[in-house]
Design brief:
It is built from twelve helices and no strands. The chain is an all-alpha fold. It has two domains: about 170 residues, no CATH class; about 35 residues.
Length: about 250
């Protein structure tokens, strides 16, 4: 019989990272596998390098129809592959990423993460995931164009959107609105957690390559713990040991 683990939850910087460290330790192998899978899924597809010198100088290509045709074919293939990568990043990858965050949240709630979360979005919540991801990216992008700082603020305030889509099953608009409401008063905590995560990643790189995996697992666990802490603070869960009601 599975033993449910309990953790200390408080919506603060120190508690989130402290609880995140414990959650990571209790689910180390599962989280490691999740991070490896997501890393493989997010690795950009290599379409190879193209050097114009392989076809000769441009002035020669103008006089050589065969080389022009070859150049055009390579450009067409590169364009098609680029379009496929764009579709993959917009229509496929977010489902795995949102599912991964749900696995970290499950771990923070004291139960063993189920790998089915990685693909469950394709079956039950696909449209909400894709639209929520597009909406957040668009809002943060618009904010970054407006002197950067608004984009950072929006990014912090919408940090719970993916959790709300997966955990509560909210549609994109409601998830964004609820994230904005839940993070009121916690924006600086999210900002500092994100800022410190940069140094955690740097330290991970410095501690050989494997340290990067530990850094990623710790940061993701910490943000999942923070989300659970805010849910408890807002009275959206019955007890700290029980999962939030969907």
């Amino acid at each position: 019989m599975e033993t449910k683990r309990t953790y200390r939850f408080k919506p603060s910087f120190g508690t989130a990272y402290g609880t995140g460290w414990r959650v990571m330790g209790d689910n180390f192998l599962r989280f490691l596998l999740v991070v490896i899978i997501l890393g493989l899924l997010t690795t950009p597809m290599s379409i190879g390098k193209f050097d114009l010198n392989d076809l000769g100088h441009f002035d020669h290509m103008v006089m050589d129809p065969e080389k022009l045709i070859t150049l055009g074919a390579i450009g067409l293939v590169a364009g098609i592959l680029g379009f496929m990568v764009l579709l993959y990043n917009l229509l496929v990858l977010p489902v795995f990423q949102y599912g991964g965050r749900m696995m970290f949240l499950t771990g923070a709630r004291g139960t063993d993460p189920d790998f089915d979360h990685l693909i469950s979005g394709f079956r039950t919540n696909y449209l909400n995931i894709i639209l929520a991801n597009l909406l957040v990216v668009a809002l943060v992008g618009i904010g970054l164009v407006c002197l950067i700082i608004p984009g950072i603020v929006i990014g912090c305030r919408l940090g719970f959107t993916s959790f709300l889509v997966m955990d509560k099953g909210l549609d994109p608009i409601k998830a964004v609105e609820e994230s904005w409401r839940m993070t009121r008063g916690h924006g600086w905590t999210i900002f500092f957690m994100g800022f410190v995560s940069i140094f955690i990643f740097i330290l991970g790189f410095a501690c050989l390559f494997f340290g990067v995996f530990i850094a990623i697992m710790w940061v993701k666990s910490a943000f999942a713990a923070l989300y659970q802490s805010v849910l408890i603070e807002k009275g959206l869960v019955e007890t700290e040991a029980e999962p939030a009601v969907a």
